[in-house]
Amino acid sequence: MRPLEKVTASLWPEVLVLPVMSTGGTDGKPLRRSGIPVYGVSGMFTDVDDVRAHGRDERLGVKEFYEGIEFLYRFMKALTSGS
Q1: What was the pLDDT predicted at 9?
Q2: CA-to-CA dists, residue 62 to 15, 27, 34, 44, 67, angstroms
Q3: What is the pTM of this model?
Q4: Which residue stretches of the chain have pLDDT < 70?
Q5: How many CB atoms lie within 10 A of CB 64?
Q6: What is the CATH number of domain 2-47+57-81?
Q7: pLDDT of the residue at 83
Q8: Long-range contacts of 10-18 (CB under 8 A, 24+ apart)
């Protein structure tokens, strides 16, 4: 959680990192069966008043897309660098 909190704070200081259980499906079942913990992290924000998940016009803002890419890059770098 430490790398996740650190990277999140560097991009969005006001965002609180909280673990939640997703109600959707995942492809992590085979990994969990093998004893490998599976976690999902997104870094993509959407407008809570504009829900279009899995619809024909599902979308994400351009700014949010690029911020999410930057977040995932920094997060993967933090996880793999040991810092």
Answers
A1: 96
A2: 20, 27, 37, 11, 9
A3: 0.77
A4: 82-83
A5: 15
A6: 1.10.150.900
A7: 56
A8: 10/74, 11/67, 11/70, 11/71, 11/74
